Amino acid sequence: MHRHRGHHGNPEDVASYIAKMEDPGRAVWQKPDEVLKALALRPGQVVCDIGAGPGYFALPIARAVGSEGRVYAVDVDPRILDRLRTHLRESGLRNVMPVLAVDDDPLVPPAACDLILVVDTYHHFPGGPAYLRRLASSLRPGGRLVNIDFHKRELPVGPAPEHKLTREEFLAQADAAGFAVVEEHTFLPYQYFVVLRRQR
After folding, report:
1. I need a labelling partner for 144 at 20 to 30 A (CA). Which of 35, 41, 57, 190 fits?
2. Strand pairing of 191-198 and 70-75?
3. What is the pTM of this model?
4. What is the pLDDT of residues 166-195, one digit of tens each?
């Protein structure tokens, strides 16, 4: 869908890319309220949102975990994080920490997170299992990793099929990184939604 892509796989026209991420119509298929309910967040938890973009999930997560909780909002594009900072100023939220990551490392502290959320982003990662092992090091004991990504077929939203991974391809990489599925949700029309924990 995006023919001209920059270094991180994001379209070079970042303004239009952000507009798509923030499009109110996205709620119809992304179902953010249902996703947040399924995550079962608790006040005081620490959540890492990988590929946070302008804060589509990071901001409501910050409200869910409350002032005693924290959200690491991770992205590799400083221009997108600038938009997130604008939202933070407007919202008054002070429990979100924007993190400018590098391609192969989210730069999140070790054993810091109760939950790591990856939405529509895993297909950008270089060296999937290695990246998952880095994410695993940032989970607290018993912490969860959640991946929500597009099914690998023609869809009215998301990237072209050749840029996506099937659910089975992702789960094979997760298994190679020592993760196993502990829960799965099927209410999203265009995406798989898997919850994993480190098994080894």
Report:
1. 190
2. unpaired
3. 0.91
4. 999 999 999 999 999 999 999 999 999 999
Quote the CA–CA distance of 87 and 85 in Å, as a whole number. 5
Cβ proximity of 57 and 124 under 8 Å = no
Contact (Cβ atoms closer than 8 angstroms) between residue 78 and residue 106: no
- For residues 137 and 146, what is the distance between their CA atoms, to the nearest angstrom? 15
Contact 45, 69 (CB under 8 A): yes
Task: Quickly count: other Cβ atoms within 10 Å of residue 162's Cβ.
Answer: 7
Q: Are the CB atoms for 102 and 126 separated by under 8 Å? A: no
What digits encode the pLDDT tens for the residues 6-42? 444 455 678 888 888 888 899 999 999 999 999 999 9
49-77: buried (b, 16+ CB within 10 Å) or exposed (e) per residue?
Answer: bbbbbbbbbbbbbbebbeeebbbbbbbbb
What domains are defined for the chain?
46-198 (3.40.50.150)
Dump the DSSP string for 9-64: SSBS-HHHHHHHHH-TTHHHHH-HHHHHHHHT--TT-EEEEET-TTTTTHHHHHHH
| Secondary structure (DSSP) of 162-185 | GG---HHHHHHHHHHTTEEEEEEE
